Amino acid sequence: MSDRHRAYAELTRSGPVHEVTLPHGSPAWLVTGYHEARAALVDPRFAAVETPLAHLLDPALRAATESSMLSMDGPGHARLRKLVMAAFTRRQVERLAPRIQQITDELLAPLAERGSPFDLLEEFAYPLPVAVICELLGVPEDRRGDFGKWSQITVNSLVVGVEALSAALTEFVSYLRELIALKRAEPGDDLATALIAARDGGDRLSEDELTSMMQLLLVAGHETTVNLVASAVHALLSTPGAWDLLGAEPERVPAVVEEALRFNGPVQTATERVVTEDVEIAGTTIPAGAHVRVALLAGNRDPKAWPAPEEFDVTRPPGPHLAFGHGIHLCVGAPLARLEGRIALTSLLSTFPGLRLAVPPQDVPAAPGVLMNAFATMPVVPGP
Ligand code: HEM
User: Fold this and answer.
1) Cα Rg, the chain, nearest whole Å
2) Would the CB of 325 count as within 6 Å of ligand 1?
3) Residue 212, exposed/middle/buried by CB under 10 A (0-12, 13-18, 19+)?
4) Which atom of ligand 1 is nearest the CA belonging to 80?
5) ipTM rounded to 2 decimals
6) With CB atoms 3.0 to 4.6 Å apart as the test, which of 53, 151, 323, 350 could cross-link to 222 if both were Cys?
7) How many angstroms does the Cα of residue 112 sit away from the middle of ligand 1?
8) Got the DSSP string for 181-199?
9) Maximum CA extent, the chain
10) Which SS3 state, helix, strand or coil, does residue 332 take?
11) For residues 50 and 300, what is the distance between their CA atoms, to the nearest angstrom?
12) Is the distance from the beta carbon of residue 256 to the nearest atom of ligand 1 less than 6 Å?
């Protein structure tokens, strides 16, 4: 078990809710129980808030990045969610399958040909979802490096501090405005064009809402699916016989993607919430105004919800895990992430039937951070 999982497991064992201090020193409450987490995520007293440090940004920059559905609840959230869902339908996601397969094949072919050890994270798990989300939004290839840098800073804002955040967001927003202008002038067959055109009756997205929405989609599409692929591979290669079993029965891949999401999902906690009044959970009162983080990683291994939760079980029937959140903010990109995860795993299994980790499983390093649950690298050997 990783140190991170051990820490969450210890907390879960001692109760479903805890007062903690986050790494940057601010106090927060952590909900670790599965049932309590699900209840909190549908409870309107747990209100969405802006991302940490947003209140310190210049007002124009704040409006251009915080007018997003993840920072609001109620009718404001419902309105934005409806507009994005009009542009990002399940059918459109399914239409992407051949292109995702093509990108996957293009990434795997040179690795197979080379036949030498490689970093699965850097050479496959990262470039795949980045290429997909950038293509989906119509971001040209030469700007993808910039997006990687801006996304990293955005999700690690508490670690990098407000100055670095502000500098990165200024560049990010300025580029998004350029992209929006370009798509207005030359509409394409992409999500940016669809978002610009999205309408609900007479309603449409404002400029700040467009930049905030595109920023949210790009960041969420960058930093999460990478670790779905990486953690699925890590879990499979750390469990004796699992890679071979799945290679022989690839029809199990969709269920294994769900088990990987449960076992070691890409997101540690839901984004911060604030309780609007005193809330009692299992005899503990979280005082009005307190900041709360719902620990998805802990809920997904709560023994009160899952038999043998510490076991990665390729035959476990899919259950209602919390990796994509729950309630009104349930991940918009889940169908896309699942599709990418399935294509990535199926292709890795058929290209590298002898794949193995180059180091003992516990030595594959985790990336630091309080929001994402990521690996830093993943050295693998392609096998015979
Ligand atoms: C929301 C996880 C992929 C777009 C969320 C939330 C979680 C999550 C936990 C809820 C956050 C909260 O309640 O505070 C994941 C995981 C992914 C993934 C584990 C990959 C395995 C994606 C992708 C996209 C995306 C590929 C975009 C294409 C979004 C958006 C929201 C969201 C827009 C906000 C929804 C709302 O506020 O109503 N995601 N996500 N996600 N995700 Fe994802």
Assistant:
1) 21
2) yes
3) buried
4) 38
5) 0.99
6) 151
7) 32
8) HHHHHS--SSHHHHHHH-E
9) 60
10) coil
11) 25
12) no
Tell me which of 332, 343, 373 to substitute to probe ligand 1's pocket, judged by most ligand atoms within 8 Å of the beta carbon. 332
Ligand 1 contact via 332 beta carbon (within 6 Å):
yes
**Amino acid sitting at position 189:** D
From 85, 331, 332, 345, give the residue whose CB has the most ligand 1 atoms within 8 Å, as the site to mutate.
Answer: 331
Rounded to 5 degrees, what angle do the CA atoms 123, 125, 128 make?
A: 90
| pLDDT tens per residue across all 384 residues of the chain | 789 999 999 999 999 999 999 877 889 999 999 999 999 999 999 999 988 788 889 999 999 998 999 999 999 999 999 989 887 888 888 889 999 999 999 999 999 999 999 999 999 999 999 999 998 888 888 888 888 888 888 878 877 888 999 999 999 999 999 999 999 999 988 889 989 988 767 788 899 999 999 999 998 888 799 999 999 999 999 999 999 999 999 999 999 999 999 999 999 999 999 999 999 999 999 999 999 999 999 999 999 999 999 999 999 999 999 999 999 999 999 999 999 999 999 999 999 999 999 999 999 999 988 889 999 999 999 987
**Is residue 69 in contact with ligand 1, taking CB distance under 6 Å?**
yes
Q: What is the DSSP letter of 363?
A: G
HSE on the CB side for 182, CA within 13 Å? 13
Tell me how many degrees the CA angle 248-250-254 measures, rounded to the nearest 5: 150
Token pair of 98, please? 């051949």
C-beta of residue 365 within 8 angstroms of C-beta of residue 258: no
Cβ count within 10 A of residue 313? 18
Kindly report the pTM of this predicted structure.
0.95
Could you tell me which of 260, 271, 234, 237 has the C-alpha nearest to residue 337? 260
Determine contact, residues 284/32, Cβ cutoff 8 Å: no
| DSSP per-residue letters across 60-87 | HHHHHHH-SGGG--HHHHHHHHHHHHHH
Q: Are 70 and 84 in contact (CB under 8 A)?
A: no
- 110: tokens are 């040179």
